Amino acid sequence: MVAVAIDGPAGAGKSTLARRLAKHKGFIYVDTGALYRAIGLKMLRNNISCDDLKAVEQLLATTELDIRFIDGEQVVMLDNENVNGLIRTPEVSMMASDCSALPAVRAFLLDMQRNLAKRNSVVMDGRDIGTVVLPNAKVKIFLTASPLARAKRRFNELVEKGIKAELEEVLKDIEQRDYNDSHRAIAPLKQAEDATLVDTTELDLEQSFNLLLKTVDTLAGE
Ligand code: DC
Predict the structure, then answer these.
(1) Which residues pair with 27 in a beta bridge?
(2) Whose CA is closest to atom 5 on ligand 1?
(3) Best residue among 29, 32, 153, 178 to mutate for probing ligand 1, ranked by most atoms within 8 Å of CB
(4) Residue with the nearest Cα to atom 10 of ligand 1?
(5) 45: which residues sit within 8 A by CB, 6+ positions away?
(6) Cβ(10) to ligand 1 under 6 A?
């Protein structure tokens, strides 16, 4: 099994590029952020705050989380419900970021992620894949872009979907999540020492993919 670990901040194009890379290589694509989002969704639905550790632990103990692959697409099943269409809202994004700082949440998701990589060749993206989840991954990429470039991409995505947004708000959100994700005590977002930096600030999607592919092939020795 081959593992490609891709970490980086929100909006760096990780999921789009990782999905395409997986298809190209014939590997499965695992979007680990979706798992944190599913937990965030359940916490919102149950009105549970991250400060209430007892309630979080209780919630996890009664949570069945599963990933399926349908036509190569990852489907997140939360308590037997497909939640793919419900986990991309700004509220869930923020809750996912907040609850991902909790050790209980990270422990809950760790084995699941490792097992996927044990059984399949994967392109796995997240924040701590190269540092914590798959420290022995053959290929480690840290994919990033400037906060403004990432905010502009997110903003354009929202506009395309017909969702009203302000660029300034999107930028603030991104900066807040960057701060949260990189300042938490456990498994913070940071480049693994042996990861290769891929910066897409000045690149469009096509150029970013070509750079990523070239970097991955070089690291994999292909
Ligand atoms: O990649 P994303 O935006 O869908 O991730 C949602 C949140 O989940 C993000 O703010 C941080 C957290 N996350 C994490 O802590 N570790 C991961 N491996 C993936 C995501």
Answers:
(1) none
(2) 33
(3) 32
(4) 97
(5) none
(6) yes
Read off the tokens for 31. Answer: 């979007």
Average pLDDT (117-137) is: 96
Give CA–CA dist 14/18, Å, rounded: 6
- Look at ligand 1, atom 13, and give the residue with the nearest C-alpha: 33
What is the CATH topology of the domain spanning 3-216?
Answer: Rossmann fold (3.40.50)
The model carries a pTM of 0.91
Interval between CA 31 and ligand 1 midpoint (Å): 9
Q: Reply yes or no on whether the pLDDT at 218 is more than 90.
A: yes
pLDDT digits (tens, 9 = 90+) for 31-74: 999 999 999 999 999 999 999 999 999 999 999 999 999 888 89
Q: Is the CB of 177 under 6 A from ligand 1?
A: yes
Q: Which pLDDT score, from 0 to 100, does residue 163 have?
A: 86
Q: Which of 36, 39, 111 for mutating ligand 1's site (highest number of atoms within 8 Å of CB)?
A: 36
| Confidence (pLDDT) at 200 | 96
